[in-house]
Structures are given as structure tokens and as C-alpha cells.
Write a structure and sequence with these properties.
Elements lengths: L3 E4 L2 E4 L4 H8 L4 H28 L5 E3 L8 E2 L3 E6 L6 E6 L7 E6 L15 H4 L9 E4 L3 E3 L8 H5 L6 H29 L1 H20 L4 H12 L4 H12 L6 H25 L3 H17 L9 H6 L3 H14 L6 H12 L19 H30 L5 H10 L4 H11 L1 H19 L8 H29 L5 H15 L3 H11 L3 H16 L15 H6 L6 H4 L18 H8 L10
Antiparallel strand pairs: 1-2, 3-9, 4-5, 5-6, 6-7, 7-8
């Protein structure tokens, strides 16, 4: 007899993969919908908060030198000045405020200037008519600063004077958060694979909430940096673990639309935090309120957070897996008959049995040639996605022409447009072609900003919004591509390794955006455009995954996409969905079993 088992004289074909077993109890039904809506969506929202924290905690308000001796600056159209009367001779102080940020003052003896001076707010003849050569104009660095508090009441920049010669400390405050993203993913991914998705996630959530609360109480810059490092360690895992869990509790055909739903939720979290930042302009209060909301969202669904069935299978925890499948079948209104329930232990123990007894590490991703190529390619693509998305998040409010909150709102709002067509694109164009087109158009938009004539700021803004739209599209596609490429037994390590590499390379993003942007505003976009055009063509090294079964073992992962021909490698559209093939009974006993009438109702197994 073929792969079938006898129980009480009846032959039931064995399920060869976990997808087969899961299809029987319902791979997408009421259970999955309830879990996604009431568990996954609430706990993913706070991960969107983290994406915006650096932007508003370390926002740079307009600043200038503070006038000593309680003097007040008089402001013209381009310059501010004050006249200091001392015992020897009057001294006139100037500073240029056209850029909103001034680190120096210019001191002139008032005897060299025609007096009296008219302080009507517009008279600049004093500066323009000064006949002293520039070498006689003494420039002095600011000893104290005054900040424009019309937009931000307080940020770490204004509280600790992270401007001018200390500006690098502000950039490091961005960078340390990204450095945390280098350390965290491998640790949390390892933990989630060892103790389970649920325990791993909630340990991460507790760690994140405590560190975020402590951030708001930081007494100095050093303490703040330590707290931001700890929060950054959780930034990737707080999204990746629920993402992986969701794709592990649904069938193949629902993974693409659910990837869109989860990314949509992430963007909603970003907008929610921007809304909080708009109404709360003091960074300590903003940290406290956002961490409180995140904690509530984490705690509320704790009881209902499920363990991954694929993790239970990989660890050989068959009894728990059987209980999980029975619960899914019941909630999905596909209750099991006693006959099928009696066979369930044999079914789950027969799925991919041989590979799940082995121990795995991230090094397994590089041991065989095909898995190595796919892993390195996914690293490059995720670096494009993460680095450019992060860079555009920083770029928009830092170099905003108007309100930074409104610019951040626009930059995040364009993320919603890909959700309207992503599902259709992923299914019809396939994962690979969708990824190529998104990265290529993003590169053209970024590179195009460098040929826009000066004075057309609106065009530059429009191109950056197009780039953000495209990189959002490829970001959610890339996560799905990773999940469908890495085998189940090492999927979390695969996600963590890719996230680790991209986070490591993204540590330079704040320096690219802020340092290069201070020199030429569009220079960071030139770097992003060059990176994404390389990433776009690397997608042809990957196999198409649409309509394919997830690889379960390392052997499956190595064979998937191996020895592709050039025609297959550059095939733009995926192959049509294969039609289901009915199994042919191999003996009379199995044939009679299939022909026997089903006494239970049609919705029963």
C-alpha cells in the first residue's frame, strides 16, 4: 500500500507536508481572522512608534547665539544684532539668521559704524555699510544658545545643546538606535526559535517598554544613549516575530494579502505616533505617553497570543500541536470526527519528521551554494529597503520646507498607496518582478532629484514621495519573499540574519542624511538611488515563490530555485497556478474507502 495508514480497517492517505495537514483543519478561517484582528494588529502598532522616535526626540529647532548680559537681539530680514555698551566703547554684535541656525557672532566696534542705529526690524544698512575688511570682523563661537520654541517646546537637542560643535552628538543619537537594531535581531530571533514565538515576543515587549519608559527619565545624554540602544535592540523583533507567526498560521494563498495588512498596520502606528508628536511637543512627555500606550497594546491580547504550530512541529511538541489543530478546526467550524482525531497523532509525527530532530544555526544559511546566493541577495535587497526607507523617514522632516510634522505626515501617508495594489501585483506580476519594478522606479526618483533646478523644491518633494511609495512597496514584498524562501526549520534565523546585516549597514544612514544633506540637500538621495538600482537587478538571482509550497527542510531550501536556466531567471511573469492533482488509489482497499459514503455532515472531516 502507498503512504497510508490503517486504523480500524480504514485507510487514510498520509499528509506529506504541514500545509496539507493545516488545509484539513482550515488554513484561513474564523480562527485566523480573530487572531489577526484582535492579537496581531494591536501588538504591531507600537513597532510603528519606534520608527519615528529619533526624528522627534532629537529634532533640531532653529537656534542662534544667546545675547549675554540679558540683552535682547534686534532682528532684521537677514541679520540679528544687539548693541553692548561697555566701559571702553560700544560693541556691535551681528549674526546671520537666514538659515535658522547660527553658531557664531561677528563683533564690531561701534565706533567703526555710523550711529545712531534705527531698530525698525528691517534696517540692515548698519551691516551693509560697514567698511571694515572681513579680517577685522572678529568671529566668535556661541557660548550659549537661544532656541525657537514655536515648533518644539523641548528636545534633547535644545535640552543638552547638541548643536554646532556638538552636532555630531545629535547624529549619534540617531545612530545608536540603529546600532541596537544590529544587536537585537539575532538575539531575539534565536530566543524565539528556542523558547517559542509567544515567550520570545513578550520578553522582547517587556524589555522594550521598560527601556522606553527609562528613556523619558534620562538625566543626561549618556543615560539617554544607553536607553536608546536598548530600545533599538527590540525595534526589529517587535515587528518580525508577529509577522512570522501570522504567516505560519495561514495557508499559502493568504500570506501575500496578510503581509500587506501587517505593513498597513505598521504605517498606522507611524501616523499615530506623528499625531502624538504633534500634540505633545516635549520629548520626555512624548516618550512616556507613547510607551504607556504601547504597553497597553502589548498586554491586552496576551492570553490569546498563540504559539506557532510550525514551531511546535519543529520542536517535536506533538501533543500541543494536536491540541492547537483541534482548536483551529473547532473555531473554523470544521470539527474533527473521532476517526480523524485518532489518526492525528500519526499524521503530525509523519510530517518532515527527519529534519526537525536536528539543531540549526544561521551558518546553515551559507553551507550550500544555492542557499548562500539566495541569502546574500536577500541581505542586499533588505539593506536597500531598510536603509532607504529609514533615510527617507529622516530626510523628510529634517529638510522640510514647512512644518516637520506635516512633512512627516505626507512621507508616511504615501505608504498607504501601495496597499491598494500590492496584493494584485504580488499575485499577477509575482514576487520577483514586483520587487524589481519597485526598486528600479525608486532609484530613478532618487537620482532624478539631483537634476532638478534650484528653486523647484516642490518637484524634489514630489520625487522623494514617489521614492518612499516605491520603497514601501518593495519593503513589504521583501519580507514576504524572505518568509517564502527560507525553510521553516531556520526561518527565524534567516529573518534575523538578514535584518542583522541590513541594520548593520544602515548604521551609516543618519550620517549620510544629516552630514551630506548639510552640504547639498539632494546628495543623500544620490546615494540612495545608486544603492537601489543595484538592488533592483539583483532580484533576478532569486527564484519566483508565488504559488509555491514553503520549503520545510534545509534540503528543500537548497533545491528550491537551484539550476535555473537563463530563461527562467529572467522570466518576468510567474507561471500559472498549477491545478490540483487528485491522487490515484493504488489498491482496492483504498479505492473502496474513497467510494464509501460519508455519514457526517459535509462540513465535517
Amino acid at each position: 500500500m502507498s503512504e497510508a495508514r490503517k486504523t480500524n480497517g480504514a485507510a487514510v492517505p498520509a499528509q506529506k507536508t504541514f500545509d496539507d495537514v493545516f488545509d484539513v483543519v482550515g488554513s484561513f478561517g474564523r480562527y485566523q481572522i480573530l487572531i489577526v484582528v484582535f492579537v496581531i494588529i494591536p501588538i504591531i502598532l507600537p513597532s510603528g512608534f519606534l520608527a519615528q522616535t529619533s526624528v522627534f526626540f532629537a529634532a533640531v529647532p532653529n537656534y542662534a547665539c544667546a545675547a549675554p548680559h540679558n540683552f535682547s537681539w534686534k532682528s532684521g530680514q537677514r541679520y540679528s544684532w544687539y548693541l553692548e555698551d561697555n566701559e571702553t566703547a560700544p560693541v556691535l554684535w551681528f549674526q546671520n539668521h537666514t538659515k535658522g541656525q547660527s553658531c557664531h557672532t561677528v563683533r564690531l566696534n561701534a565706533t567703526d559704524v555710523e550711529l545712531p542705529i534705527t531698530w525698525n526690524g528691517t534696517d540692515e544698512n548698519v551691516w551693509n555699510n560697514v567698511s571694515l575688511p572681513m579680517k577685522d570682523r572678529i568671529t566668535e563661537a556661541c557660548s550659549e544658545y537661544r532656541y525657537n520654541r514655536s515648533i518644539y517646546q523641548e528636545t534633547i537637542v535644545s535640552e543638552w545643546n547638541l548643536v554646532c560643535s556638538r552636532r555630531y552628538m545629535m547624529i549619534w543619537s540617531y545612530t545608536i538606535f540603529v546600532v541596537g537594531g544590529v544587536i537585537g535581531p539575532l538575539f531575539w530571533g534565536y530566543l524565539a526559535d528556542r523558547i517559542g514565538r509567544k515567550k520570545g515576543f513578550y520578553l522582547c515587549a517587556v524589555f522594550q517598554s521598560a527601556a522606553t519608559i527609562l528613556t523619558g527619565f534620562s538625566p543626561n545624554y549618556v543615560t539617554y544613549m544607553i536607553c536608546r540602544l536598548l530600545v533599538g535592540m527590540t525595534s526589529s523583533a517587535s515587528y518580525t516575530i508577529p509577522f512570522v507567526l501570522t504567516l505560519e498560521i495561514v495557508g499559502r494563498e493568504k500570506r501575500a494579502p496578510l503581509a500587506v495588512v501587517l505593513s498597513f498596520t505598521y504605517s498606522c502606528g507611524c501616523l499615530l505616533f506623528i499625531g502624538m508628536a504633534y500634540f505633545i511637543r516635549e520629548w520626555r512627555m512624548l516618550a512616556g505617553v507613547s510607551s504607556l500606550i504601547a504597553t497597553v497594546l502589548y498586554i491586552a491580547p496576551f492570553y490569546f497570543f498563540p504559539e506557532s504550530p510550525r514551531w511546535l512541529l519543529a520542536k517535536g511538541r506533538y501533543t500541543e500541536l494536536e491540541e492547537f489543530l483541534k482548536k483551529v478546526a473547532k473555531i473554523n467550524r470544521r470539527p474533527m470526527t473521532m476517526h480523524f482525531a485518532s489518526l492525528l497523532p500519526q499524521q503530525v509525527r509523519g510530517v518532515d519528521r527527519e529534519d526537525h530532530t536536528k539543531k540549526h544555526s544561521p551558518l546553515d544559511l551559507f553551507r550550500t551554494p544555492n542557499m548562500r546566493i539566495k541569502t546574500l541577495t536577500l541581505m542586499l535587497i533588505n539593506t536597500c529597503n531598510k536603509g532607504v526607507s529609514l533615510g527617507l523617514n529622516y530626510y523628510a522632516p529634517l529638510f522640510a520646507q514647512g512644518s516637520p510634522h506635516f512633512t512627516a505626515f505626507l512621507n508616511t501617508s504615501v505608504e498607504f498607496f501601495p496597499y491598494l495594489f500590492a496584493k494584485t501585483a504580488f499575485q499577477r506580476l509575482g514576487r520577483r518582478t514586483s520587487l524589481f519594478l519597485g526598486l528600479f522606479i525608486c532609484s530613478m526618483a532618487c537620482l532624478g532629484t539631483n537634476v532638478v533646478p534650484s528653486g523647484y523644491a516642490a518637484v524634489v518633494t514630489a520625487l522623494t514621495l514617489i521614492a518612499k511609495l516605491c520603497i514601501t512597496f518593495t519593503y513589504l514584498n521583501g519580507k514576504l519573499f524572505e518568509d517564502e524562501t527560507f525553510p521553516t526549520v531556520i526561518r527565524s534565523e534567516g529573518h534575523s540574519t538578514v535584518s542583522l546585516t541590513s541594520a548593520m549597514l544602515s548604521c551609516g544612514v543618519p550620517w549620510i542624511v544629516i552630514s551630506l544633506g548639510d552640504e547639498v540637500k539632494t546628495l543623500p538621495l544620490l546615494v540612495f538611488g545608486s544603492l537601489t538600482i543595484v538592488g533592483s537587478f539583483s532580484t533576478f538571482l532569486l527564484p519566483e515563490t508565488v504559488h509555491q509550497r514553503l520549503p520545510q527542510t534545509l534540503e528543500d531550501g537548497e533545491e528550491f530555485g537551484k539550476n535555473m536556466t537563463l530563461k527562467e531567471r529572467f522570466r518576468l511573469l510567474p507561471r500559472p497556478k498549477p491545478k490540483p492533482v487528485l491522487a490515484v488509489p493504488e489498491d482496492e482497499e483504498e479505492l473502496e474507502t474513497l467510494k464509501s459514503p460519508v455519514k457526517e455532515s459535509s462540513n465535517r472531516l
